[in-house]
Input
Amino acid sequence: MTPQAYDVKLEIFEGPLDLLLYLIKKEDMDIKEIRISEITQEYLTYIGLMKELNLELAGEFLVMASTLLQIKARMLLPQDSVSVESEEGPDPQADLVAKLLEYQKFKDAASFLAQREHQSRELFYRNILPTFSEEDFTLDSTLFDLLDAFKDVLKNAGEEVKELLYEEIPLEHKVREILDLLEKQDCIQFSQIFFVAKPRRELIITFLALLELIRMKQVVAKQSEAFGEIRIYRLKESEPASILSEEKPENHN
Amino acid sequence: MDQEKLKSVLECLLFVTNRPLSLSELADIVGETQENVQALLREISLELENRKSALQVASVAEGFQFATKEGYGYWVKKLFRDQTTIRLSPSALETLSIVAYKQPITRAEIEEIRGVEVIGVLETLIERKLVKVAGRKEAVGRPLLYSTTQHFLRQFNLWKISDLPSLEDLAREAERKKAAEGVVKASEPVSEPVFESQAEIQDPQDSVSSEPPVKGE
Output
């Protein structure tokens, strides 16, 4: 059952190729040897979750879903009928692999640029504002990282509360809850936000509240390594540069 | 103009400019040869280094400009505390890489590679002056073409676009890293630079010939 449409206007800049590469990396697969069945299953789970959260799903995600199912179906057909077809028509699996390989190259290039920028982060020119974020290579969690962690939380969800007792919890309530947690500490673990055995609906609203806080740049989610533990940090409004305890200069001559 | 005076003038220009100045621009302004200007730039650099200055002459985007040395980030950020800019998001960086390697390129071509709309991200990149419109493609609809800017070169400390490692080299490097991770489970710091930074003064031979950025493949 989908919760009431909360107005969480999260702009999702990542697309189906990003999700696929994310899943491929997570399952430690080689792009050239994707296990289509597995990937399709996972992909559909994520799409389902995103829909349940009422996140705006770009059309491309659904097109990709059907492409994956098409590839999977082809694999199940008896070999002879497939080979006749593939002599003329395009090979959707080969096309997809080619697209993923190409996109991966640019992700590698993006890493290179990020590294480059990081190396020269202290090369200041006149009139150029420094970039926020001092921590060495702490990764900002992507939407997929958050969804991944949230999937785990949902696994431990309590049973659905009976309709009679159900009260629509306002999003602001949960937003406040999260901010209160961060009042006492600089950062908290992702899982701490979701208290034990709450009904699924409440967990979803809590997650949406977190996404909203991230969107409004009041908090940020980070991990120290890919697929590692996620931590939520408060972004102090007046001091955007001091999210972590202010760095004391080590090479102070 | 006497050499000492000339040096001072160059220092002055390097200070007031808000973008890297090429050798030919500098030579033009002071009415001297590029070789002479280059030699003096080196002298200025050496002098700064000898007196342990916090400033250096940065060579970037086929030009020269004063910049700080490393190690003062804490203080500079303290000065700008309310005005830092947010780091580019992964999707912004990916879109930026596509433009950098494939320029000039249309929005549709970028979207073909990324598999999703890039209009919002592209706007951010243009706002940040990392990408610019570079004309129109002679094709149906005459769509806009995008390319990277001089500001882009400066932010990523590149002399010119062709200094970017080839995509094949990057892919090979990523493969190598992945294989290495399989062997040694210990997590290495990612800060090991794969490609050397280029913040030193270029050799006379390199910098005098300034070719225009290489077009994408």
About this structure: Chain A has eight helices and four strands. Chain A has two domains: 1-131, 133-253. Confidence is low (pLDDT under 50) at residues 1-5, 238-253 of chain A. Chain A touches chain B through 60 residues (CB under 8 Å).
